[in-house]
Amino acid sequence: MIDAITITGLTATGFHGVFPEERREGQPFVVDVVLELPLETSSDDLADTVSYADIADDVEAVITGEPRNLIETVAGEIAERCLLRGRVDRVTVTVHKPRAPLSQTFADVSVTINRSRHV
């Protein structure tokens, strides 16, 4: 049985996209992360888990960091950082781009990836 820590709706401004105005003006990106790992529920010690505050810092750093053309790349970089946290076995990352440059009316554009340290 695998346990999970979930962060939903972490929002920050990034400059990702293929169009010059996306790189110039920026836009909000919203990220959901599900970390799968064995959770020690009897120790009550932060050292026996993964700090969701550290994960949130990592996610924000990727969103606000070096501009990427694709949200797929952003999701991959977030997943890589999460898997560097020693106890995380698997991660699911969804990057939402609610202001993607589409001419149609839409609610959201998102990419979801799943990565595991045991591949």
From TrEMBL:
InterPro entries (UniProt xref): Dihydroneopterin_aldolase, FolB_dom, GTP-CH-I_C/QueF
Pathway annotation from the record: Cofactor biosynthesis; tetrahydrofolate biosynthesis; 2-amino-4-hydroxy-6-hydroxymethyl-7,8-dihydropteridine diphosphate from 7,8-dihydroneopterin triphosphate: step 3/4
Gene3D superfamilies named among the record's database cross-references: 3.30.1130.10
GO annotation terms (biological process): folic acid biosynthetic process; tetrahydrofolate biosynthetic process
Record keywords: Folate biosynthesis, Lyase
Catalytic activities: 7,8-dihydroneopterin = 6-hydroxymethyl-7,8-dihydropterin + glycolaldehyde
Gene Ontology molecular-function annotations: dihydroneopterin aldolase activity
Domain Dihydroneopterin aldolase/epimerase, chain residue ranges per copy: 5-115
GO terms under cellular component: cytoplasm
CDD domains the UniProt entry points to: DHNA_DHNTPE
Keyword Lyase included in the entry's annotation: yes
E.C. no: 4.1.2.25
Similarity annotation: Belongs to the DHNA family.
General function of this protein: Catalyzes the conversion of 7,8-dihydroneopterin to 6-hydroxymethyl-7,8-dihydropterin.
Record protein name field: 7,8-dihydroneopterin aldolase
